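Title: Prediction job returns without error message
Component: structure pipeline
Severity: low
Priority: P3
Assignee: unassigned

Description:
Job completed but the reporter wants confirmation the result is attached to the right record. Sequence as submitted:
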Amino acid sequence: MFYFILIVSCMSLMLNCYNFLHNFFLLVAKKLASQYQKEANKCNSGMETCEEVKEKAEEALSAEMKLTTMWEIRARQKGWREKVAKSNAQTQGGWVASHCLRDSKLCCSGGAQR
């Protein structure tokens, strides 16, 4: 009879230990899951911010390209030629044709007008 009580007591103790460990590991798992979820939310938020910035940069680039195209068309209408501008850039030590636009003067046939 003594052994029976001892066995039942040991089994009860083991069950209590199992329940304690189960609850402990369940709590740890919940905390870790919560931490991972917080990090995932931060990451998702960062990705959304990154996407917004990327979209704004793409819009700005598109607007700049349209403006550049408009200026190039305007320059071509006034007689600007790319080959002449390139040769000017080479002969004048890196001087660029876009500098001709200062003071509303446009170089059209080789020399810079100032």
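Comment from assignee: result matches the submitted record. Confidence is low (pLDDT under 50) at residues 101-114.
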